[in-house]
C-alpha cells in the first residue's frame, strides 16, 4: 500500500504521522510546494520509527510528482486554512486553483488512485477534484463527517462523563454551519442518547459541534489538525485494509436522499474500492428540511466554483 499526502502542513503532516505509526501503509510520500518542508517532516517521522516502533517508510518531496507514482490512495490537504473571522467558503478562490492543479498532477502519475479530499471548503473541493480527475464518484471522497462526528462524540462524552469509545453517532450534510448532527441516530453503548440527556443539553452540544471548527480557529488563529489528520488517516485505513467501515463521508449524490448532483456528507461503507455503498437511512420531516438547507448552501458554493473556474452550467 502506497499513500501520498499532498500538503505537508499541519493536517498533511499529522495524517502522514498517523499513517506511519499505525502502519496503515508501507510507504507514505509527503509532497509540498514549499522547498524542504515535506522532506524535513518525512525525515522527522521516519526518525520516530525506532522510538515508537514502526516500519512504514516516509519520503518527503518538493513538488516532484514522479515520486508519487502508482499511489493507491492520495490525500489532498494542500491549501490555505482559514483565519479568525473567515468562513471556510472564503477560501474557495485560492484553494480551487491549488486543488485543481494538484489533482491534475496526481492523476497523471496515479490514474487508479482513490482520492481523499481534505482542503476547504470541503464539499466543493471534493467536487473540484471529482470534476478535474473525471474519476468515478466512488474514488473521490471528502473527509469531514468523521471529524464533525468525533467532535460531537467528544462533547457528548464530556456531558455524560463516559468514554468517547462508547458513543456512536451519525451526522450528515455539508461541512459548515448547515451540517446536520442526528441525535435520533446517536447511541451510548446501545442506549439512545435521548434517554440519557435532556433536549436542551443535546441542542447545545449540536450547536457546539456545528461551530466546532470555528471554536478552534478562534483559539489558535488557524484551523485544527490533530483530529482532522487522524480522521483522514482513518479513511485511508478503511480502504487499505478493506475494512468496510461505515463513516459519514462527502460524496456526489446521484439521487440518494432525493438529491442529485450535490456533494454532501452521508453514511457510506468504505472499503478497497473506495465508496462501496451509500447507506440511505430514513429521515423525519425536520431532518429532511435541515438536509435540504445544507444541499442549497453547498449548491450555491458549487455554483460559485463554476463561475471561478468557468465551468459551463
Ligand atoms: N475537511 C476538514 O475537515 C478539514 C479539517 C482541517 C483543515 N482542513 C483544510 O485543510 C487545508 C490544510 O490545512 P492545514 O492546517 O494543514 O494548512 P497548512 O497551511 O498548515 O498546510 C497547507 C500546506 O499546503 C501546501 N500547499 C499549498 N499549495 C500547494 C500546492 N499547490 N501543492 C502542494 N502543496 C501546497 C502549503 O505549502 C502548506 O504546507 C486547509 O484548506 C484547511 O481549511 C479541512
Ligand atoms: O474549521 C476549519 O476551517 C477547518 C476544518 O474544516 C475544521 O472543521 O476543523
From TrEMBL:
CDD domains hit by this protein: LDH-like_MDH
Enzyme class at the top of the EC tree: oxidoreductase
Listed InterPro entries: L-lactate/malate_DH, Lactate/malate_DH_C, Lactate/malate_DH_N, Lactate_DH/Glyco_Ohase_4_C, Malate_DH_type3, NAD(P)-bd_dom_sf
Residue span, Lactate/malate dehydrogenase N-terminal domain: 1-142
GO MF entries: L-lactate dehydrogenase (NAD+) activity; L-malate dehydrogenase (NAD+) activity
Reaction(s) this enzyme catalyzes, per UniProt: (S)-malate + NAD(+) = oxaloacetate + NADH + H(+)
Domain Lactate/malate dehydrogenase C-terminal, first and last residues per copy: 147-299
Gene3D superfamilies assigned to the protein according to its UniProt record, in alphabetical order: Lactate dehydrogenase/glycoside hydrolase, family 4, C-terminal, NAD(P)-binding Rossmann-like Domain
Catalytic-site annotation from UniProt: 175
Pfam family, one: Ldh_1_N
HAMAP family noted in UniProt: Malate_dehydrog_3 (MF_00487)
Entry protein name: Malate dehydrogenase
Organism, as annotated: Thermonema lapsum
